[in-house]
Amino acid sequence: MSTVETDLDVPGAARPGSGAGAPGAEVTAARLARVGDLDVRRLLPLRQRRSVGAWCFVDHYGPASVDGVAGMQVPPHPHIGLQTVTWLIAGTVLHRDSLGSEQLIRPGQLNLMTAGRGIAHSEESPEDHDPWLHGVQLWLALPDAHRQAAPDFEHHAELPVLRLGGLDATVFAGSLAGVSSPARVFSGVVGAELSAPAGGRGTVPLVPRHEHVIFAAFGTAAAGGTELRPGSLLYLPPGRDSVTVSAQAGARLFLLGGEPLGETLLMWWNFVGRTPEDIEAAARDWATGQRFGAVTGYHGAPLAAPPLDPVRLARKAR
Q1: Has this prediction a pTM greater than 0.85?
Q2: Residues 6+ away with beta carbon under 8 Å from 217
Q3: Are 158 and 121 contacting, i.e. CB atoms less than 8 angstroms apart?
Q4: H or E stretch including 283?
Q5: β 179-180/55-65 pair status
Q6: What is the rounded CA–CA span in Å between residue 114 and residue 238?
């Protein structure tokens, strides 16, 4: 998914809220954005926090009726320095990229695209799409040592699921409780969907040296004594080895975490770099048809990069 935002430090993001039940925990509110026909809750990045582990971008969209409308229509656009994680709760989305990949994704499946030094892709609801669409789009920042990696794409239709008391956890990235996703990632992370088919409670193990966030995508739940509803994000700092989660029947939550990245990220439009020169070169190459390749099969023009303000970009890099 392409972001319409160029300044991803998110001015106006909610400040840490009260009511978090764990020491050092913070609750922040999403900011609404519009991507095509979809209203999107943007939960990360925040002004006070650009990343949680390597997770540097969290968009939650839906559930939305796309019956009789185009649904998701994101024209070809470029990425550098990150991995995109596409995860659906309901609906179907068709992915195409400049490697020649064409993949329909369904709920419970993983699309993982590694941008590395540069890739372009499009995302759209297919012509015969389901009437509802609900999902998340996540970005993993590539560590500096791997951010020039060759671009790649993976699709995983089957992923490991473990039972945590009254919760089911599907591990789509990294590892949880010794269970690992088959997807290739470049740093120690966890990405898991937590569901409560009949309502219930469970203890979710955490890696103490990692930081974590939990958010609800559907229904109501509580984590570590903090109530969660769609549009709020709970941050848990390093130092915890578990968190207790309770959820009403049908609730869907997401757990993301990882070792603090320890690197300064410069995020602009769809690019994750380290210096203004990284961003300027990527924008120039996209505008001149270099580096990223072409996405075939999408009926429409690629997205143009928004105007780049070098002065503002230099300030963001400090």
Answers
A1: yes
A2: 60, 89, 134, 136, 230, 252, 253, 254
A3: no
A4: helix 276-287
A5: unpaired
A6: 27
